[in-house]
Amino acid sequence: MPVTLTTLRLVLGPVVVILAWARVPGYWIAGCTLVAFFSDIYDGIIARRLHIDTALLRRYDSVADTVFYVCIAGAAWRLHPEAIRRNSVIFIALLGLEIVRYIFDFAKFRREASYHMYSSKLWGLVLGVATIVLFAFGISGWLLRAALLLGIVCNLEGLVISFVLPRWTHDVPTLAHALRLRRVPPA
What stretches of the chain show up as alpha helix (H) in DSSP? Predict the structure, then answer.
């Protein structure tokens, strides 16, 4: 079931782009975002309850989130380019940090990070709401800006965690946890 819910986000991403390209009303994209948001919440809960929350599933979840929100950014560019232009500096900084993180993680660990930090959970919540508000109501003010800025903070924390950790691990909720893991000798 968690793999199915995670895969749903991977499928919804391109669907969102197709809907935007067809200039379908934004509430359809808002609906897709709502479905993706709840699938993200429940796939983790279900995986933990079934004791199948493996490192591979956690990595898959992180990739699905990234793919979905890259597609959302493309849809926003298509349907709300003024929102992207107004926040272009923040958006470019966020995109640049995402790329730097992936490159750094692959260079250091030979795989992407999958920390599922508290800050990334907050970012997902704010970004999900900002996305729904943008597509359903055409509002892109302070909430979208806050979501993008929170994304920068979250990516900076993730980059620092990757720098601090001596070896790849998943589910590192905060930098403080990473610092504690750094002091633990390898098993």
Answer: 2-21, 26-49, 55-79, 81-86, 88-109, 118-137, 142-164, 175-183
* CB distance 47 to 53 below 8 Å: yes
Q: Identify the CA nearest to 113 among candidates 97, 127, 93, 131.
A: 97
pLDDT surpassing 70 at residue 169: yes
pTM: predicted TM-score of the whole model, two decimal places? 0.88
Question: What Å distances lie between residue 64 and 8, 27, 67, 89, 150, CA to CA?
Answer: 9, 22, 5, 25, 19
pLDDT above 80: residue 185: no
Domains belonging to the chain, first-starting first, are: 2-183 (1.20.120)
What letter does residue 185 receive in the DSSP assignment?
P
Phi, psi of 83 (to 5 degrees): -65, -40
Count other Cβ atoms within 10 Å, centred on residue 137: 11
